[in-house]
Specification:
Helix content is 49%, strand content 14%. By secondary structure, the chain is of the alpha/beta class.
Length: 266
């Protein structure tokens, strides 16, 4: 019960990897601050977790596409007197299609969500953690950040930023009592592909999607061990290792074939 007075804040906590992480923290008696866009889903998730695990769940209905939302999350935790012991930046989205055809405004929203909100929340809470000499941060990157991704050029680019950012900040935090862990899943069975409008891509139609519960467990274990990163799944570890010794142009061509629409036979 040593964690019963501790709080973990998780974005994108009502489904997928974020929801599975929330359950793991709740199981270990962390109280939760969960963030998502849908008030009904937040209320449902909070009730489930409180009833099952006997913890306190605070909900913040925020749209992290909004420039001010991440700042508001920090300010509201302070107003409520909540010290955040663990931060999980999980919320993220992509958009499927060739770059010349996709919606630039949606892509700018995705850049803000995947990058800017992650940076704002990480800085805000890391400063408090360093001042206390204790804290943990888990930022969800992706193996997409290790390879160029035709049909998801902006998403892959944002995750490359996130992972590089994670490793740099974790290095700076050495000796402070605070660690930052980078979680790199592969394609996972969540609502991501539906939101990205890529259900017709080969990676969804013909590939084997990962289990979000297993991805969450890999991330949770690495976070608690203070590791700098974890690639979830042996197949994904092998893909990253291969991409590290393969020319980027060849990796891009391979990803083009994996992610193209199923009807595209060229």
């Amino acid at each position: 019960m040593e964690n019963e007075q501790k709080y973990a804040l998780i974005t994108g906590a009502t489904s997928g990897i974020g929801y599975e992480l929330a359950k793991l923290f709740a199981q270990d008696h962390y109280n939760l601050v969960i963030v998502a866009r849908d008030e009904a889903e937040l209320s449902k998730t909070a009730s489930e977790l409180e009833n099952q695990f006997g913890i306190t769940v605070t909900t913040f209905q925020k749209d992290l596409f909004n420039k001010e939302a991440a700042f508001e999350i920090y300010d509201e935790t302070q107003a409520k007197g909540l010290n955040i012991d663990v931060l999980v930046n999980n919320a993220g989205q992509g958009q499927f299609g060739e770059f010349v055809d996709t919606d630039i405004n949606r892509e700018l929203d995705i850049i803000h969500l995947n990058i800017c909100s992650t940076v704002i929340l990480t800085k805000s809470f890391a400063q408090d953690m360093v001042a206390r000499g204790d804290g943990k941060i888990l930022n969800v990157a992706s193996i997409a950040g290790k390879v160029p991704g035709p049909f998801q050029a902006v998403y892959h680019g944002t995750k490359a930023f996130v992972h590089s950012f994670n490793e740099a900040v974790n290095n700076e935090l050495k000796g402070t009592g605070v660690t930052l862990t980078s979680l790199l899943p592969g394609a996972t069975d969540t609502d991501f592909f539906n939101k990205a409008e890529m259900l017709d891509s080969k990676i969804v139609q013909e590939g084997k999607l990962g289990d979000p519960a297993q991805v969450a467990k890999d991330g949770y274990d690495a976070l608690m061990a203070g590791e700098d990163k974890v690639i979830s799944g042996m197949k994904n570890k092998m893909q990253v290792a291969m991409s590290n010794v393969t020319p980027d142009s060849a990796v891009a061509e391979m990803m083009h074939k994996q992610q193209e629409p199923v009807e595209n036979k060229d």
